[in-house]
Design a protein that fits this description.
The chain is an alpha+beta fold. The chain is 52% helix and 18% strand.
Length: 227
């Protein structure tokens, strides 16, 4: 019975019913991938829409190529143009896009069972990883602290970092207000998210109640982490 997963739906000829079955499966699996991606990765609306239709479009392209070398080369050239006109995303965005293309390729070649199995395995593992608290890494923060120019920031907050964080690193330093202030940017991981306010209150006492910003680590449009 399991051998049927690796058998192609198509024979020597492709009928309209076979095409409709493959197209329907590709659209359903694309929708499943899009929903799981949004739930586990907080994807954008544009990525959500693209993931729904990507398996169907790849399936259609594979059926149009159908063994033609010339058509395959033309399709490869078109895909390369799309690649260089697209902004890079995060690693997880690339992974789900690759999954959607793989599912579309499997549907285009008639391997419906294999496409369903791949979707269930990858999406299932993603949901398990999202559900396990230790798999989220949600305590990572970007921290910006403003201090007066007469303060030596080298070891200024080390005791507070030791009390409230498991790791920290100073990522950048820049001057502000004609050199009278320093803006310190840190990447930290909190020990206990519920003590974040207490951490910020202690920092305010240390830096003279100047501006402090603490934000979740987010991924910008170009795949770079932003504050």
């Amino acid at each position: 019975m399991l051998d049927g997963l690796f058998a192609s739906l198509y024979g020597d000829t492709t009928t309209a019913s076979m095409f409709l079955i493959s197209a329907a499966v590709a659209l359903v699996l694309g929708w499943v991938i899009a929903v799981v991606s949004r739930k586990t990765n907080n994807g954008s609306d544009s990525l959500f829409g693209a993931l729904i239709f990507l398996p169907f479009l790849v399936q259609l392209v594979i059926m149009l190529v159908n063994g033609s070398v010339g058509t395959g080369v033309a399709v490869m050239g078109a895909f390369s143009l799309i690649r260089f006109r697209s902004a890079p995303g995060s690693a997880q965005d690339i992974a789900v896009i690759f999954l959607a293309m793989t599912v579309g390729l499997a549907c285009g070649m008639g391997y419906i069972g294999l496409a369903v199995l791949a979707t269930l395995v990858v999406c299932g593992v993603s949901l398990i990883r999202w559900a396990v608290p230790s798999g989220r890494g949600g305590a990572d923060r970007e921290l910006k602290i403003t201090i007066p120019e007469d303060m030596d920031y080298t070891d200024l907050f080390d005791d507070l970092f030791a009390s409230y964080t498991t790791q920290h690193s100073l990522t950048s330093v820049k001057t502000a207000n004609m050199g009278s202030l320093y803006n310190l940017h840190y990447r930290i991981r909190l020990k206990d998210v519920s003590r974040e306010k207490a951490f910020l209150d202690d920092l305010r006492c240390r830096n003279g109640n100047l501006e402090i910003a603490c934000a979740h680590v987010s991924v910008g449009k170009e795949g770079k982490e932003t504050l």
